[in-house]
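Our consortium's second objective concerns turning raw sequence data into structural hypotheses that experimental partners can test. To show how far this objective has progressed, the report includes one record in full. It was chosen at random from the queue rather than selected for favorable results. The single chain below, 135 residues long, was entered without modification.
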Amino acid sequence: MTALPNSRPFRIVFRWQAIATAAIAAIAALWAGWSGAWSALLGGAVSLLASVVFAVTLALSLGDGRPSGPVKPLRAMLRAEAAKVMAIVGGLALALKSFDGIVHPAFFGAFITAVIVFSLAFFVSDSEPGKQSNG
């Protein structure tokens, strides 16, 4: 599985994250009004941004994508994971410091859901459904 921003698994999981965030925002809007909806959207946005940071860092770290051994991909994954964690910590800190009326259950619920959805990329095939890959 490649995690490049234009890869099929990344596109699908990014879409799933956005849909899950929107669904939680709709539920939060019914439960806590506009501040709940905005809090959920903000929580999901932190995870979406971290996903983009992960994919871009991985793509840049892999370079041409044809490693000669296991060291380069492993370093690329660790570098991308570290960048993702830094983006998450920075995004959470910025969101929690910047917005006074944040609804914490909606914010963290959307954030955690989107992070879990990102981990499902492992199960998404690189090839289109109905097409056989050459590898």
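The partners drew two points from this record. The mean pLDDT is 86. The longest helix spans residues 8-62. Both points have been shared with the crystallography group to help prioritize constructs.
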